[in-house]
Amino acid sequence: MEKVSVVIPFYNCPYIDQALDSLLNQTYKNVEIIVVDDGSTLHLEKITPYLDNVSYIKKENGGTATALNTGINSATGNYFCWLSSDDIYNRKRIEAQLKFMKIKNASFCYSNYCSINEKNRVISPPLGISPLGQRELLKTMIKGNIINGCSVMMKMDVFQGVGLFDETLLYTHDYDLWLRIIQNFEAHYLNNVLLRYRVHDNMGTKKHYSEIQKEIKYVQEKHEANIKKLLSF
């Protein structure tokens, strides 16, 4: 039975207990839960009841990419998933996605998802996007990130091929990694809503909008020439 390692970066998030509940309630049981406390000072008491069921790593604050890489480096699973501390997995998420990946013999997979609000109410239709084929995905992704990081499941050995998250990128470390991956591995899309992505006033995408736009441009310029070369064949 394959082991799936799920890394949760945690920084002062009041929803961490709901994220952990969604992992402990998975129908697939061979799951390693790694909580990386990125220098939190708030809501630590919400993790205490779960300490017997998770690997808990405390580190100085360094940003989400550093927390993810810390978790990946300590993981012992065959597959990697990421869960933001304010998001929630469908209880069949790991079982369904792992089964799909095995059928497709996939190294990298992302799924459909929807948005929820602070009260866990679904506030959007399914938001997943799947271009037709790898070429279309490359064309789409160089214009903007359509892959929700917490919907991703991938084989651990993919990191050996493309490296870990870029810790110099505070906000677009996921976009950069997905671009590296899809230049080297086929991406598979599972059209099941397996993630509930929380939208709230304190989320980073709202608070740091202008900085994020600058980083997006930097990441696109970094990968544009290589992707154009791939598309020319």
Describe the structure.
The chain is of the alpha/beta class and 233 residues long. It has helices spanning 16-24, 64-74, 93-104, 133-141, 158-162, 173-182, 204-207, 209-231, and strands at residues 4-10, 31-38, 55-59, 79-82, 88-89, 108-116, 153-155, 187-198. Strands 3-2-1-4-7-6-8-5 form an 8-stranded mixed beta sheet. α1 links the parallel β1 and β2. α6 packs parallel to α8. The radius of gyration is 17 Å and the shape is globular. The model has no long low-confidence stretch (mean pLDDT 96).
What characteristics describe this protein?
single chain; 233 residues; alpha/beta; 8 helices; 36% helix
Q: Order of SSEs, N→C?
A: EHEEHEEHEHEHHEHH
Gap between N and C termini: 39 Å
CA-based gyration radius: 17 Å
Percent of residues in helices comes to 25-40%
> Structural class of the helices, strands and pairings?
alpha/beta
- Helical region count? 8
Mean pLDDT: 96
Strand content: 15-25%
Oligomer kind: single chain
> Which strand order spans the largest sheet, edge to edge or round the barrel?
3-2-1-4-7-6-8-5
Beta strand count? 8
* Biggest sheet record: 8 strands, mixed
Low-confidence stretches: none
The geometry reads as: globular
Structural topology:
Blueprint: E1 4-10, H1 16-24, E2 31-38, E3 55-59, H2 64-74, E4 79-82, E5 88-89, H3 93-104, E6 108-116, H4 133-141, E7 153-155, H5 158-162, H6 173-182, E8 187-198, H7 204-207, H8 209-231
Parallel strand pairs: 1-2, 1-4, 2-3, 6-8
Antiparallel strand pairs: 4-7, 5-8, 6-7
